[in-house]
Amino acid sequence: MKRHSFFAVSLFLLFASCILVSCMDAEKSYREGDYEGVVKALEWKKVLTNDDYILKADSLFALGRYDESLKNYMLFLLLTDSSAPQRQHSVSRFVQLNGYDSLTILIVDKSDGFEARKALYRAYAGLGDTERAVDTIGLLSNEMTYSQLVSFVLERPVEGESIARLFSSWWFGIEEGEKKTFLDLLCQYSEMDGLDEKATRICLETTDAMIADSYYTQDDALLSALLKTKGNILEKLYDRINARMYWNQAYRLNPDDVSLLEKLGR
User: What is the pLDDT of residues 218-239, one digit of tens each?
Assistant: First the structure.
Protein backbone atom coordinates (compact mmCIF):
# COMPACT_ATOMS: atom_id res chain seq x y z
CA MET A 1 0.00 0.00 0.00
CA LYS A 2 2.82 2.34 0.97
CA ARG A 3 4.57 1.45 -2.25
CA HIS A 4 1.53 2.45 -4.30
CA SER A 5 1.19 5.72 -2.37
CA PHE A 6 4.87 6.52 -2.90
CA PHE A 7 4.52 5.75 -6.59
CA ALA A 8 1.42 7.96 -6.90
CA VAL A 9 3.09 10.86 -5.09
CA SER A 10 6.20 10.52 -7.25
CA LEU A 11 4.10 10.47 -10.39
CA PHE A 12 2.21 13.57 -9.28
CA LEU A 13 5.43 15.43 -8.45
CA LEU A 14 6.90 14.48 -11.81
CA PHE A 15 3.79 15.67 -13.61
CA ALA A 16 3.71 18.92 -11.61
CA SER A 17 7.39 19.57 -12.32
CA CYS A 18 6.80 19.02 -16.05
CA ILE A 19 3.96 21.52 -16.00
CA LEU A 20 6.05 24.06 -14.11
CA VAL A 21 8.98 23.62 -16.45
CA SER A 22 6.75 23.89 -19.52
CA CYS A 23 5.26 27.12 -18.19
CA MET A 24 8.68 28.56 -17.46
CA ASP A 25 9.90 27.42 -20.87
CA ALA A 26 6.92 29.12 -22.51
CA GLU A 27 7.61 32.45 -20.83
CA LYS A 28 11.33 32.21 -21.60
CA SER A 29 10.61 31.34 -25.23
CA TYR A 30 8.22 34.28 -25.53
CA ARG A 31 10.80 36.72 -24.15
CA GLU A 32 13.29 35.39 -26.69
CA GLY A 33 10.85 35.65 -29.58
CA ASP A 34 10.64 31.89 -30.01
CA TYR A 35 6.89 31.74 -30.62
CA GLU A 36 6.92 28.16 -31.88
CA GLY A 37 8.62 27.23 -28.63
CA VAL A 38 5.82 28.91 -26.66
CA VAL A 39 3.14 26.92 -28.43
CA LYS A 40 5.01 23.64 -28.01
CA ALA A 41 5.69 24.27 -24.32
CA LEU A 42 2.05 25.02 -23.59
CA GLU A 43 0.93 21.84 -25.33
CA TRP A 44 2.24 19.99 -22.23
CA LYS A 45 -0.37 21.65 -20.08
CA LYS A 46 -3.81 20.03 -19.96
CA VAL A 47 -5.43 23.07 -18.32
CA LEU A 48 -4.28 26.55 -19.34
CA THR A 49 -4.46 29.59 -17.10
CA ASN A 50 -5.71 32.95 -18.34
CA ASP A 51 -2.10 34.10 -18.71
CA ASP A 52 -1.37 30.99 -20.76
CA TYR A 53 -4.19 31.77 -23.17
CA ILE A 54 -2.78 35.26 -23.76
CA LEU A 55 0.76 33.94 -24.18
CA LYS A 56 -0.43 31.34 -26.66
CA ALA A 57 -2.73 33.74 -28.50
CA ASP A 58 0.00 36.37 -28.90
CA SER A 59 2.49 33.75 -30.08
CA LEU A 60 0.07 32.31 -32.63
CA PHE A 61 -0.70 35.83 -33.82
CA ALA A 62 3.01 36.52 -34.28
CA LEU A 63 3.26 33.29 -36.30
CA GLY A 64 0.40 34.35 -38.56
CA ARG A 65 -1.81 31.49 -37.35
CA TYR A 66 -4.76 33.84 -36.97
CA ASP A 67 -7.63 31.36 -36.65
CA GLU A 68 -5.93 29.59 -33.75
CA SER A 69 -4.94 32.92 -32.26
CA LEU A 70 -8.55 34.14 -32.38
CA LYS A 71 -9.72 31.01 -30.59
CA ASN A 72 -7.34 31.64 -27.68
CA TYR A 73 -8.22 35.33 -27.39
CA MET A 74 -11.87 34.30 -27.38
CA LEU A 75 -11.31 31.75 -24.61
CA PHE A 76 -9.52 34.37 -22.53
CA LEU A 77 -12.40 36.83 -22.97
CA LEU A 78 -14.98 34.20 -22.06
CA LEU A 79 -13.10 33.35 -18.86
CA THR A 80 -12.50 36.93 -17.65
CA ASP A 81 -14.40 40.14 -16.96
CA SER A 82 -13.62 43.75 -17.89
CA SER A 83 -11.31 44.22 -14.89
CA ALA A 84 -8.88 41.50 -15.97
CA PRO A 85 -5.35 42.54 -16.99
CA GLN A 86 -4.73 42.09 -20.73
CA ARG A 87 -8.47 42.18 -21.49
CA GLN A 88 -8.25 45.43 -23.45
CA HIS A 89 -5.39 43.98 -25.47
CA SER A 90 -7.39 40.81 -26.10
CA VAL A 91 -10.49 42.75 -27.14
CA SER A 92 -8.42 44.77 -29.62
CA ARG A 93 -6.95 41.62 -31.17
CA PHE A 94 -10.31 39.82 -31.14
CA VAL A 95 -11.97 42.72 -32.96
CA GLN A 96 -9.12 42.76 -35.47
CA LEU A 97 -9.37 39.03 -36.23
CA ASN A 98 -13.06 38.27 -35.88
CA GLY A 99 -15.33 38.51 -38.91
CA TYR A 100 -18.63 37.33 -37.40
CA ASP A 101 -21.15 39.81 -35.98
CA SER A 102 -22.91 37.18 -33.89
CA LEU A 103 -19.59 36.18 -32.29
CA THR A 104 -18.83 39.80 -31.41
CA ILE A 105 -22.11 40.10 -29.53
CA LEU A 106 -21.44 36.84 -27.71
CA ILE A 107 -17.87 37.66 -26.65
CA VAL A 108 -17.56 41.44 -26.28
CA ASP A 109 -19.23 43.72 -23.74
CA LYS A 110 -19.78 47.48 -23.94
CA SER A 111 -17.72 47.83 -20.75
CA ASP A 112 -14.68 46.52 -22.65
CA GLY A 113 -13.77 49.95 -23.95
CA PHE A 114 -13.98 52.13 -27.02
CA GLU A 115 -12.94 49.55 -29.63
CA ALA A 116 -15.41 47.09 -28.17
CA ARG A 117 -18.27 49.59 -28.42
CA LYS A 118 -17.38 50.32 -32.04
CA ALA A 119 -17.33 46.59 -32.78
CA LEU A 120 -20.69 46.14 -31.07
CA TYR A 121 -22.24 48.92 -33.14
CA ARG A 122 -21.02 47.31 -36.36
CA ALA A 123 -22.35 43.93 -35.20
CA TYR A 124 -25.78 45.23 -34.20
CA ALA A 125 -26.09 47.23 -37.42
CA GLY A 126 -24.99 44.24 -39.49
CA LEU A 127 -27.57 42.00 -37.84
CA GLY A 128 -30.35 44.56 -38.19
CA ASP A 129 -30.68 45.12 -34.42
CA THR A 130 -31.47 48.81 -34.82
CA GLU A 131 -32.48 49.46 -31.22
CA ARG A 132 -29.21 48.25 -29.71
CA ALA A 133 -27.20 49.84 -32.53
CA VAL A 134 -28.78 53.22 -31.75
CA ASP A 135 -28.13 52.73 -28.03
CA THR A 136 -24.48 52.12 -28.87
CA ILE A 137 -24.37 55.29 -30.99
CA GLY A 138 -25.43 57.11 -27.82
CA LEU A 139 -22.42 55.68 -25.96
CA LEU A 140 -20.02 56.50 -28.80
CA SER A 141 -21.30 60.08 -29.02
CA ASN A 142 -19.47 60.76 -25.73
CA GLU A 143 -16.19 59.51 -27.19
CA MET A 144 -16.12 60.81 -30.77
CA THR A 145 -16.62 64.13 -32.52
CA TYR A 146 -19.67 64.45 -34.75
CA SER A 147 -17.41 64.20 -37.79
CA GLN A 148 -15.82 60.99 -36.53
CA LEU A 149 -19.12 59.48 -35.41
CA VAL A 150 -21.05 60.23 -38.61
CA SER A 151 -18.16 58.95 -40.76
CA PHE A 152 -18.09 55.78 -38.67
CA VAL A 153 -21.82 54.98 -38.71
CA LEU A 154 -22.07 55.62 -42.45
CA GLU A 155 -19.72 52.67 -42.97
CA ARG A 156 -22.56 50.46 -41.74
CA PRO A 157 -25.69 52.60 -41.43
CA VAL A 158 -28.82 51.65 -39.52
CA GLU A 159 -32.40 52.18 -40.62
CA GLY A 160 -34.57 54.91 -39.14
CA GLU A 161 -33.90 58.54 -38.41
CA SER A 162 -31.00 58.22 -35.93
CA ILE A 163 -28.29 59.16 -38.45
CA ALA A 164 -30.38 62.02 -39.83
CA ARG A 165 -30.71 63.32 -36.27
CA LEU A 166 -26.94 63.13 -35.86
CA PHE A 167 -26.57 65.42 -38.87
CA SER A 168 -29.19 67.78 -37.45
CA SER A 169 -27.49 67.94 -34.03
CA TRP A 170 -24.09 68.42 -35.63
CA TRP A 171 -25.37 71.28 -37.80
CA PHE A 172 -26.76 73.05 -34.74
CA GLY A 173 -23.27 73.52 -33.29
CA ILE A 174 -21.10 73.15 -36.37
CA GLU A 175 -17.75 74.94 -36.69
CA GLU A 176 -16.69 76.65 -39.88
CA GLY A 177 -13.87 74.20 -40.52
CA GLU A 178 -16.31 71.26 -40.48
CA LYS A 179 -18.76 72.52 -43.07
CA LYS A 180 -17.09 70.95 -46.11
CA THR A 181 -16.88 67.54 -44.38
CA PHE A 182 -20.49 67.93 -43.25
CA LEU A 183 -21.67 68.46 -46.84
CA ASP A 184 -19.58 65.56 -48.17
CA LEU A 185 -21.02 63.16 -45.59
CA LEU A 186 -24.59 64.40 -46.01
CA CYS A 187 -24.29 63.97 -49.78
CA GLN A 188 -23.00 60.43 -49.21
CA TYR A 189 -25.92 59.71 -46.88
CA SER A 190 -28.43 61.10 -49.38
CA GLU A 191 -27.23 58.58 -51.97
CA MET A 192 -27.85 55.57 -49.71
CA ASP A 193 -30.79 53.23 -49.88
CA GLY A 194 -33.08 52.62 -46.94
CA LEU A 195 -33.78 56.19 -45.79
CA ASP A 196 -37.32 56.30 -44.44
CA GLU A 197 -39.59 59.32 -44.79
CA LYS A 198 -38.85 60.70 -41.33
CA ALA A 199 -35.09 60.58 -41.88
CA THR A 200 -35.47 62.13 -45.33
CA ARG A 201 -37.56 65.05 -44.04
CA ILE A 202 -35.02 65.76 -41.28
CA CYS A 203 -32.29 65.88 -43.94
CA LEU A 204 -34.43 68.16 -46.10
CA GLU A 205 -34.76 70.63 -43.22
CA THR A 206 -30.99 70.52 -42.77
CA THR A 207 -30.33 71.32 -46.44
CA ASP A 208 -32.78 74.24 -46.22
CA ALA A 209 -30.67 75.67 -43.39
CA MET A 210 -27.47 75.05 -45.35
CA ILE A 211 -28.73 76.91 -48.43
CA ALA A 212 -29.12 79.99 -46.23
CA ASP A 213 -25.42 79.80 -45.30
CA SER A 214 -23.06 81.97 -47.37
CA TYR A 215 -20.26 79.43 -46.87
CA TYR A 216 -21.99 77.24 -49.47
CA THR A 217 -23.65 79.83 -51.69
CA GLN A 218 -20.44 81.76 -52.44
CA ASP A 219 -18.65 78.71 -53.89
CA ASP A 220 -20.02 77.13 -57.10
CA ALA A 221 -18.60 73.66 -56.38
CA LEU A 222 -19.98 73.59 -52.83
CA LEU A 223 -23.35 74.97 -53.89
CA SER A 224 -23.56 72.41 -56.70
CA ALA A 225 -22.91 69.57 -54.23
CA LEU A 226 -25.52 70.98 -51.87
CA LEU A 227 -28.15 71.30 -54.62
CA LYS A 228 -27.39 67.75 -55.76
CA THR A 229 -27.86 66.53 -52.20
CA LYS A 230 -31.18 68.33 -51.93
CA GLY A 231 -32.26 66.75 -55.22
CA ASN A 232 -31.29 63.30 -53.91
CA ILE A 233 -33.42 63.83 -50.83
CA LEU A 234 -36.41 65.08 -52.82
CA GLU A 235 -36.17 62.02 -55.08
CA LYS A 236 -36.48 59.83 -51.98
CA LEU A 237 -39.69 61.71 -51.19
CA TYR A 238 -40.89 60.81 -54.72
CA ASP A 239 -40.74 64.46 -55.79
CA ARG A 240 -38.99 63.76 -59.08
CA ILE A 241 -39.90 67.10 -60.68
CA ASN A 242 -38.22 69.22 -58.01
CA ALA A 243 -35.38 66.72 -57.69
CA ARG A 244 -34.53 67.19 -61.39
CA MET A 245 -34.82 70.96 -60.99
CA TYR A 246 -32.15 70.94 -58.28
CA TRP A 247 -29.97 68.50 -60.21
CA ASN A 248 -30.14 70.76 -63.28
CA GLN A 249 -29.11 73.76 -61.20
CA ALA A 250 -26.28 71.75 -59.71
CA TYR A 251 -25.13 70.62 -63.16
CA ARG A 252 -25.01 74.19 -64.48
CA LEU A 253 -22.71 75.10 -61.60
CA ASN A 254 -20.52 72.01 -62.00
CA PRO A 255 -20.80 70.33 -65.42
CA ASP A 256 -17.84 68.07 -64.57
CA ASP A 257 -19.88 66.09 -62.02
CA VAL A 258 -20.43 62.77 -63.80
CA SER A 259 -22.98 61.58 -61.24
CA LEU A 260 -25.27 64.47 -62.19
CA LEU A 261 -25.16 63.43 -65.84
CA GLU A 262 -26.34 59.95 -64.78
CA LYS A 263 -29.16 61.37 -62.65
CA LEU A 264 -30.34 63.57 -65.50
CA GLY A 265 -30.06 60.75 -68.03
CA ARG A 266 -27.69 62.61 -70.31
Answer: 999 999 999 999 999 999 999 9
Residue 211 burial (CB count, 10 A): 13
Distance CA 153, CA 147 (A): 10
Q: Which residues fall within 8 angstroms of residue 207, CB to CB, at 6 or more apart?
A: 186, 226, 229, 230, 233
**pTM confidence score:** 0.84
Nearest alpha carbon to residue 102 among 83, 126, 85: 126
Q: Where are the alpha helices (DSSP H) in the chain?
A: 2-31, 35-42, 50-62, 66-79, 87-97, 101-107, 114-126, 130-140, 146-155, 162-172, 179-190, 197-211, 214-217, 220-236, 240-253, 258-264
Reported as a single tens digit per residue, the pLDDT across 171-205 is: 999 999 999 999 999 999 999 988 899 999 999 99
Alpha carbon distance 76, 57 (integer Å): 9
